Amino acid sequence: MPLRLVRAEMADIPQLVDLYFNTFKSPLVLRVKPDVPPVREWYKKSLESDIEKPHTRIYKVVEGQAESAQASDEIIAFAKWSSPHTEPQQEKPTDWSVDGDVALFKEVTDKATEKKKKIMGEKEYWYIGVLATLPKHQHRGAGSLLMTEFCKQADEAGHWSYVEASPLGRPTYQRFAFETRDTFSVVIDGEPYIDSCMVREPQIVSINVTKHAGYY
Asked: Residues in domain N-acetyltransferase (predicted)?
């Protein structure tokens, strides 16, 4: 069956939660976000908050034709990204579940935030928070559908893009012109776990080249 990319809705969130925890099994995720009910509830509330934000976009990939779409269609992949924005001062993240490794979560968050500020500075950029495909549906092009849509939106806006990529995720981002600018690491069970800080420069959209050729 063909794959179809559509915007996710609030009713999709239970499936997105299942997909997330069925996909991510890295040592970092297993420690920070163990697959237990309190952490699943935390992630569910986080997605419910994000999906209502105007700067956050969540897309899903399902099988089948548009005219045969049903609410029960299995979601085989999803991604969450955000456009440049300033968080309102009163806005705060959903309280973190104590069932995860709180100390490790804080260490990773602090290191990721520091690296992002150092690399991106004052640039406006789009940020990829999640890119996930169910293991049994990988290598079918679902991730590419999501990444193509993300790059299209970022390029049309003329903005940079940023992602913290796991070792397994890095090759996907490299295929879409992301470059590793730095890394950060944490130690889990005596072994280093390294994430890559990856940046993509805005690409010139062809329609804009034609329309504004005199400016280039």
From this structure: 1-200
